[in-house]
Please model this.
Amino acid sequence: MGQEESHSEEMDLAQIQDLCIIFMKECPSGALHLHEFKRIFGVPSSSEEETLYIEKIFRSFDTNQDNTLDFLEYVAALHLVLRGNLEDRLKWSFKIYDKDGNGKLDRQEVKNLIRIIYKIKLQRSDITMTPNEACDRIFELVDRNSDGQISLTEFMEGAQKDEWVMNLLKLDVNATSWVIQNCGKLP
Model:
């Protein structure tokens, strides 16, 4: 079993090397720009809400705030999105969703994020709830103290206790298909 784990890590290192090659091919300047980031995640420039959402994600990874992702920021982003543990991904999701940065999600923030999530990741599903109904259900399941706001603690606990909430709130940008597709292009 230990050998399998070691072999798995070796494969991951090879994939990182492949990603470095892809990064340098696509970004010879050493910087990934927002328009390239949108293309990676399949966000059409015609969708204002999706564009704002992906821009916020991009900015969360742009740690030095130079409006580009260098290779280290790119690797950190891919690691979080593709391999990050649940707690880290939920904390990151909460940060993205907390539009005003006050450490709590209010109903308007939750409704806005549900609308965007519906457009981006639930288009192909059989969800029958409206964004308002989904928001009400989230607050019913997650807002433990019924103050009309969801704290980070309530967000994390609620998402981990209820699979429906988890699947809806866990920020799940679809980088995996891009990585697989582009790794297949290597010589």
In short: Residues 2-26 form the longest helix (25 residues). The two ends are 32 Å apart (CA to CA).
